[in-house]
Amino acid sequence: MTRIPSSEITDRKVYVRRREFIAAAVAAAGGIVLPQRVDAQQPAVHGRKLTTVRSPLSTSEAPNSWEHVTTYNNFYEFGTGKDDPARNAPRFRPRQPWTISIEGECARRGAMALDDILKGETLEDRVYRMRCVEGWSMIIPWVGFPLANLVRKCEPTSKARFVEFTTLHDTGQMPGQRDDVLEWPYVEGLRMDEAMHPLTIMAVGLYGEVLPNQNGAPIRLVVPWKYGFKGAKSIVRIRFLEKQPQTSWMINWPQAYGFYANVNPAVAHPRHSQAMEARLPSAFRTTRTLMFNGYADQVQSLYTGMDLGKNY
What we know:
The chain is 17% helix and 21% strand. With 312 residues, the protein is α+β, with helices and mostly antiparallel strands. The longest helix is centred in the N-terminal third of the chain and has 11 residues, at 18-28. The radius of gyration is 19 Å and the shape is globular. The protein starts with 5 loop residues before the first helix and ends in a 13-residue tail after the last helix.
């Protein structure tokens, strides 16, 4: 029997700063304030600055604030509520040194330390539009490097057609993993050409600083033309596979969450439309959802000849 996803049973209140939410509600509802209270969490403490360089692959839209980006999160390892990561993740202590196990169809298998992965990399500011399948979006200023660079270091074989990403499994530090809302550890995947696309990055920072815990520290996947659940966080394993992997949300609710997860406003979630979205901090869906989240010019050629209604 398919479990009811927590995104459908948890509170849908927008967990952003109360003043900003009320202001947005008043403006959008003609002075009518929504009845529920919104209790804000403390934003992440500012961390070490990173050396970055500007990238042309970004949006011209104004980014959300540090407070928005670090208090309204999907990171089920720390809880299913949007404010749970901000509440629970500050106690997380990423292991040092952080290593990623490289496995599967590649020449360079074994543990790879994050410090070694970053050697020689030029970190880039990537201001990306990010879209969640639950109907909200943000503009987030990530700091990272192209995933393609890491893939090349691993020297995948000709059999490697997919890349699988696995999140840390640590129930002592990640209280959400004590719940069976998903199969743990969290697993996501990309087709090899998606992984090699220049828009796809491994993020290690936010707003020019080290990545906060609730946003996926110390390293996470960012694929801006896909829904947010594609962004595996706190990654500890990367596998190169010949066959398409079974990802966590595909196992949990395959009718709603397919492997590709491309933003397609014409394909509705089983319980709601994806045609409109709420641009946080607004609580109302007044923004039209763009195909491929607005990155169609860069990525639509990856899916030539595919039925994007079936391959969702």
